[in-house]
Amino acid sequence: MSVNDQVLNYPIPNDAAIDPPAEWAELRSKCPVAHVTLPSGDRATLLTRYDDVKEVLADPRFTRRLNAPDAARLSAEGGGVFSSEMASIIPDGGEEHQHWRRLVAKWFTAKRMAAMRPAMAQIAEDLIDGMVERGAPGDLKAGLGFPLPVFVICDMLGVPASDRDRFSYWSDALLNLTRYSEAEIEAAQGEFFQYMSDLVAAKRAEPGEDLLSELIAVGGPEDGGLSDIQILVTGMALLVAGHETTANMIGKMVSMLLADRSRWERLLADPSLIRTTVEESLRYDANSGFGLPRYLPEETEVSGTVLPRGTTVVCSMAAANRDENAFAAAAEMDLTRSPNPHLAFGAGAHSCLGQALARTELQVVLEVLLRRLPTLELAVPVEELERVEGLAVGGLRTVPVSW
């Protein structure tokens, strides 16, 4: 039975840690606008071609307003981590959203990222020291991938280093809806909210060189700034959005490079390839999670198919990034690929605000790992790496390595 004749379950089941499901290529060639059933049982439309995904993501009419009465529910439990409250405090569309982005984006410029590099490298060095002390084999995800983005966000928000571990726990509890009980998640959310509330008050009294202090300095809504609750939720949102995605990407990137160790050897021989390697890892990542859902408030046409008003579309950036029509030898991992216009960070007005931060973190991790642990290798066959089964973000359960 071909993909045209059936309604696929989405996400498409896939056991392989690094390889894409076979259905992607078939969908792109024969059924680029496919009907799928979501975990909630609701129906949605899946896009897998590069041009279609880019077009829908870049169209400002299509937003993440998944609380419309006719929008598909992603899971039976609803939208996941405080999506409804978060969306109402930080506007997700229109001029208000653009205004919020402009205020926050000043913190994510290339210049800021360059200034943060030495601190990021030091965090990576310290975490690798810890891994080496504990001895091989170690879990690269737990030892480096998971803590690094939290510690970097803590630096950006002006959170004291002594509170980093509490931040790590809250982030984990808010993102891993399966690992903790509802009571634990609610408690973590309450503690995190209280902590951020106190932090904003402390920054108001004694500003520092950090994102929260800068947002406070702009003034309130009447001065073109944000309210205290918006500043607080922005801090929480940056941790939640920037943490698990990058933490998982660190583990997946290193796994891809070690799965065929000639890639790692090539980087050791020529570290100038780090920048293009990071971009290619982002493009090549076949385990990036759910993709981006979009709600169509009006009828539209995609790839010759008319989609009625009220359709929920799932854009699979990972499938689009393997499209042969957009990338030569798309199934190959080419560390020198340039240009590399992948869609890992989305496209258009809603493209990932923190992409410069994620890129910098990934580059710094590679730089420090290559220098400190040149003999790094996977401690298990690549076939034994296990995917994290979760709705939002794709990743590997552990990344066992030795050196």
Automatic annotation (TrEMBL):
Cofactor(s) of this protein: heme
Annotated transmembrane regions: none
Coiled-coil blocks: none
Keywords: Heme, Iron, Metal-binding, Monooxygenase, Oxidoreductase
UniProt GO molecular function: heme binding; iron ion binding; monooxygenase activity; oxidoreductase activity, acting on paired donors, with incorporation or reduction of molecular oxygen
Pfam families documented for this protein: p450
InterPro entries: Cyt_P450, Cyt_P450_B, Cyt_P450_CS, Cyt_P450_sf
Keyword Membrane: no
PANTHER family with a match to the protein in the record: CYTOCHROME P450 BJ-1 (PTHR46696:SF5), P450, PUTATIVE (EUROFUNG)-RELATED (PTHR46696)
Family listed: Belongs to the cytochrome P450 family.
Protein name, as recorded: Cytochrome P450
Lineage: Bacteria, Bacillati, Actinomycetota, Actinomycetes, Streptosporangiales
